[in-house]
Amino acid sequence: MKLRKKREPDTVPVAGLSIYDPVHLGMFADGEGVNIELIYRNILMAGEPGAGKSVGLNNVVAHGALCPDVSLWLFDGKQVELGLWREVADVFVGPDIELALQRMEALQAEMDRRYDELDRVRRRKITHTDPIDVVMLVVDELALFSVTMGSKDQQEQFVRILRDLVARGRAAGVIVVAATQRPSADIIPTSLRDLFGYRVAYRCTTDSSSDIILGRGWASQGYNAATIAPEERGVAYLLAEGGIPRRMKSAMLTDADIYGLVDYAQHIRTSGGHSAA
Ligand SMILES: Nc1ncnc2c1ncn2[C@@H]1O[C@H](COP(=O)(O)OP(=O)(O)OP(=O)(O)O)[C@@H](O)[C@H]1O
């Protein structure tokens, strides 16, 4: 595990993105690009199995991987969903609740340290001029950590820390990206869902599961992920804080695209002094 300082300004600049740049997710139904500001925000992606959540998630992870100013923390309950990115992850946790908890606690402690430091210098949030990485914590599949693996105590502890990171992490440079194929109230309680500034609902089987992702009442107003046809893979409703849901389609990265991006990301991250664990 590494929580490095970001690359020194006097090193040779290398190509790459920044987490302060918009993240490209795909295209809205009217042809406009979907580019979201993920810094100081969190994102929840959910939908029934096979609806396109992993493809959508890969766009976010790709952006993080291509950012020398991001420390990439990947929690992959299935081991294989995010496995292609493993070489560029600073932290990779597979289906191991104990390791997951250890890492989550470390991240929570780091967040608290950052807040202490911000407090000391009388500031509210970290910015792109701070010599510190933004942590992108990606959790896929949420339900495996919160209700399937480990003891009830461990699951509750996981959810408690996750909620704290989602609630307080943003200003300290911790972005949470959470994904699940189980859009039900026990996996995405309202109190957790409401902390996510961005919510992406891929196809759901019921109106109520669509509402569990996007927020109560949207389905009855016509923004309903249960109306997405099964063959429309990658289609979703995106809700951005304070807005109304918009229908979009994820950009698709093939495995071959991802291999290429991983090679490139490795180059960027190591030449910038950012070496993955
Ligand atoms: N944006 C897209 N464009 C084209 N095809 C897509 C897109 N998104 C998904 N698909 C197709 O749908 C398949 C399933 O997508 P994906 O693996 O992302 O589903 P999922 O919701 O993550 O499933 P699970 O929850 O079971 O992991 C992909 O293998 C791909 O063939």
List key phrases describing it.
FtsK/SpoIIIE/SftA, 277 residues, ten-stranded mixed beta sheet, Rossmann fold, FtsK_dom, alpha/beta, single chain, binds adenosine-5'-triphosphate
Question: Could you characterize the architecture of this molecule?
Answer:
There is one protein chain. This protein has 277 residues and is an alpha/beta fold. It has one domain (23-271): Rossmann fold. Helix content is 32%, strand content 19%. A 10-stranded mixed β-sheet has the order 2-1-10-9-8-3-7-6-4-5. Strand 9 and strand 10 form a beta hairpin. Helix 2 runs parallel beside helix 4 (152-168) and helix 3 crosses helix 4. The N and C termini lie close together (6 Å). Adenosine-5'-triphosphate binds at residues 47, 49-55, 181, 202, 233-234, 249-250, 252. Keywords: ATP-binding, Coiled coil, Nucleotide-binding. Residues 20-211 form the FtsK domain.
CATH class: Alpha Beta
Indicate the percent of residues in helices: 25-40%
Order of helices and strands: EEEHEEHEHHEHEHEEH
**Helical segment count:** 7
CATH architecture: 3-Layer(aba) Sandwich
Question: Strands across the major sheet, in which order?
Answer: 2-1-10-9-8-3-7-6-4-5
The CATH homology group name: P-loop containing nucleotide triphosphate hydrolases
Query: How many β strands by DSSP?
Result: 10
Beta-strand fraction estimate = 15-25%
What's the overall geometry?
A: globular
List the domain count as a whole number. Answer: 1
Largest sheet properties: 10 strands, mixed
Q: Compute the gyration radius: what is it?
A: 18 Å
CATH topology term: Rossmann fold
What are the segments in which pLDDT stays under 50 over at least 5 consecutive residues?
A: 9-13
Residue-averaged pLDDT: 92
